[in-house]
Write a structure and sequence with these properties.
Order of helices and strands: EHEEEEHHHHHEHEEHEHHEEEEHH
Mean pLDDT: 95
CATH class of one domain: Alpha Beta
CATH topology of one domain: Beta-lactamase
Length: 385
């Protein structure tokens, strides 16, 4: 284990998770009141030569891309007026209006209430296509042709296609591709050097960012084989590695820095995230049934991965999970950022019950280590079911 400041009990929980085979590599960072109070790495990287995991090793953070990149950029664009939450996305992305989607707005996409399906295998049939630009174009064509399963704002269904469309809309509205937008608008202002897309549509830049870096492997599956240093998500891979729903690689410290930027915005402190937009994005959406805010999830009434203690204050919590085994949660009352990055899916896929249990134990250990465990009055985040 390589460690910085340590919270009592947290390292033990994660080391037990490693021993029990929940994940071969785990990295955690916790900030409270703006200060780093816990940092530790557990486990190893198996290739090219087995060695102990280091703080700068990169994890595929998968769906955390939705909040770290896409929702953050959307909040900036809404603040600037270059994107409007309640105008149809097809204003910026005309092809998206096909198949009855002309009324879908950025708000619907951020809240997962667009009526789009949760997932589609747009990547199928593209593994033999060597040109990433052609793969990208084929995915966009299929996404534009996707019909709605329900009218917008009548249901909440977590949707990767929705965030794929939102990412394309942001590129159109802001005039650049997601990797460049993220670098200029999020990574550079926060001084982040360890968070980026591995983008096959810009191989020179991606090679420069990836040079000398080590990546935690994810699945070994199908014709793509072992995914290490290339995005795990197949639809994101087919789009070149950079999409609105997945594609970022990062470290626990960098993920915590973006989480802190959202906390700072919500508390009125200087941040690359505009304060007014942050407050709008942190409000639960009205579409039924939902614990979703805009981009973010909130603490659900039962069985939250936040565990027993965190996120129960009047202001509640914001967070997101990722298929690869990563998570980010913000406790707004405690001014707490809790990041857990793992490659739980290596090598054969996810066991949801095991990673869910580890997340709960991690967050309970964080609460106990900071003296936050114990009865806390349930606030609005839990009273709205």
């Amino acid at each position: 284990m390589i460690a910085g400041p340590i919270l009592p009990g947290v390292a033990e929980v994660l080391e037990a998770g490693r021993r029990d085979g929940v994940a071969p590599a785990l990295s955690a960072a916790v900030r409270c009141g703006g200060e780093l109070v816990h940092r530790a790495c557990h486990g190893e990287l198996p290739a090219p030569q087995p060695r102990e995991l280091r703080p700068g090793d990169l994890f595929d953070v998968a769906s955390l891309t939705k909040v770290l990149a896409t929702a953050t950029l959307a909040a900036q664009a809404v603040h600037e007026g270059t994107l409007r939450l309640d105008e149809p996305l097809c204003r910026w992305l005309p092809g998206f209006a096909a198949a009855g989607k002309g009324g879908v707005t950025p708000r619907h996409l951020l809240a997962h209430s667009s009526g789009l399906p949760w997932w589609r295998p747009y990547h199928e049939g593209l593994s033999a296509e060597p040109d990433p630009a052609r793969r990208h174009a084929a995915v966009v064509e299929a996404l534009f042709a996707e019909p709605l399963e329900a009218p917008p704002a009548t249901r909440t269904t977590y949707s990767d296609p929705g965030f794929m469309a939102l990412g394309l809309g942001l590129e159109a509205a802001l005039g650049a591709r997601l990797p460049a937008l993220f670098e200029a608008r999020v990574a550079a202002p926060l001084g982040l050097r360890d968070t980026f897309f591995v983008d096959a549509l810009d191989p020179v830049a991606s090679a420069a960012r990836s040079s000398g870096r080590a990546f935690a492997p994810t699945r070994r599956e199908g014709v793509r084989g072992l995914r290490q240093g290339t995005v795990d998500d197949d639809n994101a891979w087919a789009m070149g590695g950079a999409a609105g729903h997945a594609g970022l690689f990062s470290t626990a410290l960098d993920v915590a820095a973006i989480g802190q930027a959202w906390l700072d915005a919500l508390d009125g402190r200087p941040s690359p995230v505009p304060a007014e937009a942050a407050r709008r994005f942190a409000t639960r959406d009205a579409a039924p049934p939902s614990s979703r805010a805009l981009g973010w999830d909130t603490r659900s009434p039962e069985g939250s991965t936040l565990g027993s203690w965190l996120g129960r204050g009047p202001r509640g919590a914001l967070g997101h999970l990722a298929f690869t085994g990563c998570s980010l949660w913000l406790d707004l009352d405690a001014r707490l950022v809790a990041v857990l990055l793992t490659n739980h899916v290596h090598p054969a896929g996810s066991d949801r019950a095991r990673i869910h249990g580890l997340r709960q134990r991690f967050h309970d250990a964080v609460a106990e280590g900071l003296g936050l465990a114990g009865p806390r009055r349930a606030g609005p985040a839990e009273e709205v079911a």
